[in-house]
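INFO batch 0412 | record 1 of 1 | parsing
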Amino acid sequence: EVPSIILGIFIYAIYVLATKKTSLVAGALSLSLAILPYTVVQVRESLRVIPFTYREAAHSLGLPRWKTVFFVLVPMNLRSILVGLLSAFLRAFSETAPVLFTAGAAFYGFYGLDGPSSTLPLLVWNFAKTPYENWQKLAWGASFILALVSISLSLIIRKATKEVRF
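INFO prediction complete | emitting tokens
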């Protein structure tokens, strides 16, 4: 797995320097690349636990491989796949490093997909280091929201990851 800061620098070099501006699209691209390996491993492992006999049965009925995956294997293990995707989202939600280089820092509004953007961790980092007390209070509030969302998603993931027997 490549560190997220390296992915941020890569997207900066490829996308941001080519367009000459930071943007929400560049930030989303860097976060997508950061969670892609994690998501692929989660989905592959969740599909691997299904016994091979189900695949054999689908193939013996004449289903091509892609139909076997999408109409037999994925519905059987949809819960594990969704938990994996939720875990990946939680990881992307807490990333700061790639967004620093790619999305810029816009704290006062939405400037469109091709404009600068921000994330909660970046907002906390920028507001906490200011000398202004009201900005520091905003950083504490954003930290609380970040922690609350992270804990809530973690509890949902924990509740949803019960062992399924075939």
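INFO post-check: The CA atoms of residues 35 and 88 lie 6 Å apart.
INFO record closed
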